Amino acid sequence: MYEEFKQFKQVKDDKNPFTPHFVIDEERDFYVEPVVFTQLHGFQERHPDKYELIISSMIEKVMANKKVIFVGDFENYFTEKDGYIYLELLDITNQLQIFVEDKSRGSDYGD
User: Fold this and answer.
1) Beta bridge partners of 88
2) Does pTM surpass 0.85?
3) Are 10 and 2 in contact (CB under 8 A)?
């Protein structure tokens, strides 16, 4: 179902049933909140040539830190686990200097 991480075992976590949990080995595993997949697919559409680099960098972060939760927003995450670090996708893409301009803004019409 999650093509990007098909090489890893996916394990159900009853305490976090909506967040896919992937296991690399006995020491390393990670969660990817659903909104992160939406963000990933946005990057895939805008930077298809950089997509594999983004996925590889995510895996490198897990290999280095062992326990990672990729969250959509540090201030509004919903996956909680003790002993894990929290990373946003922008932590990965900014480091790689891959940017998507956010042109969404409030209305110009006023009252």
Assistant:
1) 71
2) yes
3) yes
pLDDT digits (tens, 9 = 90+) for 61-109: 999 999 999 999 999 999 999 999 999 999 999 999 998 766 655 655 6
Backbone angles phi, psi at 43, to 5 degrees: -65, -35
Q: Which residue is listed with tokens 């894990």?
A: 84
Would you report the helix, strand and coil content of the chain in percent, each value rounded to 5? 35, 15, 45
User: Beta partners for 86?
Assistant: 69
The residue with tokens 């595993």 is 29
Got the DSSP string for 52-94? HHHHHHHHHHHHHHSEEEEES-TTS-----TT-EEEEHHHHHH
